[in-house]
Fold each of these.
Amino acid sequence: MTSSVSSSPTSSPDLLKTKTYSRPYHIEIGIIVLFLCLTIPSLIILSLIYRRQTLPSTSSSTSSSFNEHFHRISLNNYPNARCMDNSIASYYIRLANNPHARWLIYFDGGWFCYSKDSCDFRRQYSPDLITTKNFNEKKFLSGILSSFKQYNIIYAPYCSSDLWSGSSNLTHSHGYDIFHAIFHQQNYFHHAKQLLFVGFSAGGLGLLLNLPDLFPKFSPHIDLRVVIDSAWFIDYSDNSNGISKINQGMIYWNTQISSSCQLESRYKCLLGSEAIKFFPSSVKILIIQSLFDLTQLQLDKMNVNSYDFSLKLRDNLHQSSHRISIFAPSCPLHGFLFRSVWTKFDIKQRTLASVLNVWLKRKKRFHLQLIDEHFYSSYCPQSHDDNDYYESIF
């Protein structure tokens, strides 16, 4: 029709103009429809992929009968497994509905005391951190412990105040004894295919100290993985406040150090860059560490705006990057995985949940590293409940 009109010598200019512009109009409509047909399915597919990567695959939905409560088990048969107030230490366990052979073992944190005076202060002002007397038989836990529904989980509360390292009846420091009693209690891991050790703060330091002697007891066929949450300490020579307290504490606690660590300065066995040297090369390690860790800054009496500390921490992580995977945002806080919003932390729009998910899926040795190099590419969500919990343990 358009051809006949445009070729007609009697057609008016207005009619000719109208007909001439009708063809591009229909073409544009067709292009838009075609574009929508192609992009909408693509967007749907991409959103599904993103959703799968946002939460670990281990947190997939389970049946409505899933028991979210953890049950308490006391270490009655181990006389040295005692808290700071001499109460019997205990841990919590939750078994998955399906008989998966995957385990998550979580060691909690909560600062430390390093002398009689500092421990007396802790007894007076933080009594819940030195005892199991107020523990319930059942417990509901949030953060990563509520996300990994297809994992069997052991949660070890921290009541020894000694970075899980002490063995002293004199000072009631038995973190080392409690740590190893948990693994002697029952043969939970006989059919395990994967063991995921997670340590927050003092719990992370406890893993760095104790795991080198524990690893040989597991079958070489088990996939061993370690997540250190906010426990990558550095030897900050410009400020020795924190190191001096830890040195004093290690004597007070009668700290037990792995025989594989023969460093002259014993405190260096706690430093991440040194401690990982004593882990078998087959063990996969993920470090989650804020470059503006409030507790480490407090320990070293540093200002939160001190970029010098953050730069040295960043460089120290880089020096070990050949051995570890890293998630290091610039969030002014301490601890990630205990928080209800732990999945939402991100660096350049790569969430912590997606990083952990990829890291858990990879079978072969590889190192995934995400560091906020210039201190402005991090998203740090906040939750009042999480802040209340943090304040209760520090």
Note: The chain has twelve helices and 13 strands.
Amino acid sequence: AGKSTFVQCITSYLHSQNPPQPPYILNLDPVVTHVPFEANINIRDTVNYKEVMKQYNLGPNSGILTALNLFTMKFDQVLELIKKRAETVE
């Protein structure tokens, strides 16, 4: 509880700096349908939580864990995106 609000506060703070320091944000919550900030990488773009539940005949908690496990299979791609972004930041 409060994770999205926390990230929103940090994001707002970083954008308010002079000069602005926009963060690179990853949303790793496969269930959340709306976040009050723009995520650079969103697990929901890769893994459909409800489809995972249907495909594997899982309940909500197991569906979340399985969606996260499936996402980790592509984490090397996530790390490459982060590395590219790091090259443009001081």
Note: The mean pLDDT is 91.
